[in-house]
User: What shape does this take?
Amino acid sequence: MAHDPARCPGCADPAAAFGPHDHAHCATDVLARAEMLAGAAGARLTPVRRRVLEILLESHRALGAYDVLNRLAAEGYGNQPPVAYRALEFLEEHGFVHRIRRLNAFAACMHPGEAHAPVFLICRACQSVAEAPGAPVRAALDAAAGAMGFAIERLTVEALGLCPACAEGAA
Ligand SMILES: [Zn+2]
Ligand SMILES: [Zn+2]
Ligand SMILES: [Zn+2]
Assistant: This one.
């Protein structure tokens, strides 16, 4: 099935990450794209790398390396930390996962293969992560920095807060 961004909730609308949607569609679609991109880059989504990506794609939640390792161990992939770390490193290098520094965790990228520098919206209650377009934020910061003669080279924006579901629960 060809990818149609307009029909993919995870692609069409960053807010979908926080709302009820057909997440199986996000997961299947992203996994297929990752598979294709890895092949095009001459890299291989080995069973363990693929499984780590699948685990991260189970929801929009970020998971720590330790959580990933526990899952791998439970599924018989062995309990050696380097197995999980190396797989996560590979996936991050190829843009299939994002490192969420605020949580010291990883979240599957919903837009693999697209050049993007998202603003990460992180729910502090459920660890869900959404990728919002980062261009307007970047432009504003470039202007502010430029006024001070500063050239921004790298920028990661992580916003911590509450997703709609958790905000409702807390109200
Ligand atoms: Zn989804
Ligand atoms: Zn992304
Ligand atoms: Zn939440």
User: Anything to note?
Assistant: The longest strand covers residues 119-123. Residues 10, 17, 21, 23, 26, 60 surround zinc ion (ligand 1) (CB under 6 Å). The chain has seven helices and five strands.
